[in-house]
Amino acid sequence: MKAKELGLRYGISTLGLILVALGVGISIKSNLGIAPPSCPPTILNLRFTAISVGSFTWMMHLLFILLQVVILRKRFKLKYLMQIPAAFVFGYMCDGAIWLFDSIQAPATNYAVQILLSLAAVVVTALGIKLEVLGRSWILAGDMTTAILADEVKKPFGTVKVIFDVALVAITALLAWIFFGLLTGNGSTVVIREGTIILAVLTGLCMRVTDPLLEKLFQPVTSTFTPHDA
């Protein structure tokens, strides 16, 4: 693979990671609930404030990778280790996005604004996920774990994704209850609410619209990529 192509691959995927991280920051700013994959790191950060959301994010991703090793054993491929640097990069991107939006204003309190921010997070996240796929370089552990589980149980990716997300939200609700006696957050910052459902359900639907647009926009670049063994 040529250096130019490698740079383009990682450039596109990194742009995707940045957008997904911005989606996390926007959803937290909405204070109406955040996407399921970011729920556990956020509730842990609210309890253990010395450790950032991004740090808890890469820790969670490392646990996902360990789960993959347990499931796959000898079938675990060396290239899957690229999930490790991706975990650190994405984690600190999340911290950067949260810092960026925190520097702008306090969390939203007007319900209409909260809904608009949640919808904005949906669009930004949908764009980011597709760019990750188009770049075919960085691998996020959450999606890889879902794909491996789907393959193991012989079920569609979408079905397993829903179950996986529900499990993450349930774990978050349990932690919130243990830490704060609530199911939604710590009483001031909302982690689980209708925004969580909006992000979980509408992101996939939004991608039906945004994916073709991005494919058309980036087709002149991605068509030059050599075949990639997923």
Task: List the SSEs and their pairings.
Elements: H1 3-30, H2 39-47, H3 53-72, H4 83-102, H5 111-135, H6 141-153, H7 157-180, H8 194-222
Helix pairs in contact: 1-4, 1-5, 2-3, 2-7, 3-4, 3-6, 5-8, 6-7
Would you kindly provide a written description of the structure presented here, covering whatever features stand out?
- With 230 residues, the protein is mainly alpha-helical.
- It has one domain (3-222).
- Helices cover 73% and strands 0% of the residues.
- The chain has helices spanning 3-30, 39-47, 53-72, 83-102, 111-135, 141-153, 157-180, 194-222.
- It is globular and about 50 Å long.
- It starts with a helix and ends in an 8-residue tail after the last helix.
Mean pLDDT: 90
H/E element sequence = HHHHHHHH
Question: Strand content of the residues, in percent?
Answer: under 5%
DSSP E strands, number:
0
Alpha-carbon Rg, integer: 17 Å
Structural class designation: mainly alpha
What is the 3D shape? globular
What is the rounded distance between the termini?
15 Å
The largest sheet, given as strand count, sense and whether it forms a barrel, is:
none
- What is the percent of helical residues? over 70%
| Number of domain units | 1
Low-confidence stretches: none
Number of helices: 8
Q: Quick summary of this structure?
A:
The chain is mainly alpha-helical and 230 residues long.
